[in-house]
């Protein structure tokens, strides 16, 4: 496609899908990175979560601490983190939620959804899979295809002061 070289502007966690922005030159990449650092960019994700998420916007504004040894974040003393959540729809078992991180901490959306009581439905790191061996209908079993499909968290939109990019919803949405 004659696009080389490309310059990545941001990253997604390994299991997260969706929009990824590359610049065609280093100058534009630096400009976009400066917009990110200045808080001028807005990111939007969708997540498929357990349960019926509330209809009204929920703002989770709790600190997050990342434990590199465990590869996991938690709500504790740590860096400030804020995420806005709005339910898109629900089927009574799962809800599709629009996630707008105000800050950008490691696993922020995943941790804040867990904190709100609605973890991502196939998030093996932040969803408890304690199962009663006698259970005949266990809703907390990890969904089939988790490893191949990735996390039910998808970046759908990035926008800046004078631009916006978006991509379609994935099949699981």
What are the secondary-structure elements, in order, as H or E? Answer: EEEHEEEEEEHHEE
CATH homologous superfamily classification: Pseudouridine synthase
H/I helix tally = 3
Number of discrete domains: 1
Radius of gyration: 17 Å
Which CATH-level-2 architecture? 2-Layer Sandwich
Q: Which shape, going by the Cα principal axes?
A: globular
Query: Which parts are unreliable, with pLDDT below 50 for 5 consecutive residues or more?
Result: 130-135, 142-146
The largest β sheet comes out as: 7 strands, mixed
Text of the CATH class: Alpha Beta
Helical content band: 10-25%
Average residue-wise pLDDT:
87
Q: Indicate the structural class.
A: mainly beta
Report on this structure.
The chain has helices spanning 26-37, 108-115, 146-149, and strands at 7-8, 17-18, 22-23, 42-50, 58-61, 64-67, 72-79, 82-90, 94-101, 153-160, 163-166. Strand 10 (153-160) and strand 11 (163-166) form a beta hairpin. It is globular, with a radius of gyration of 17 Å. The strands form three sheets. Strands 2, 4, 5, 8, 9, 10 and 11 form a seven-stranded mixed sheet that branches. It has a two-stranded antiparallel ribbon with strand order 1-3. Strands 6-7 form a two-stranded antiparallel sheet. Mean pLDDT is 87; it is low at 130-135 and 142-146. With 173 residues, it is mainly β. The protein has three helices and eleven strands; from the N terminus they run βββαββββββααββ. It has a single domain (42-166), classed as Pseudouridine synthase (2-Layer Sandwich).
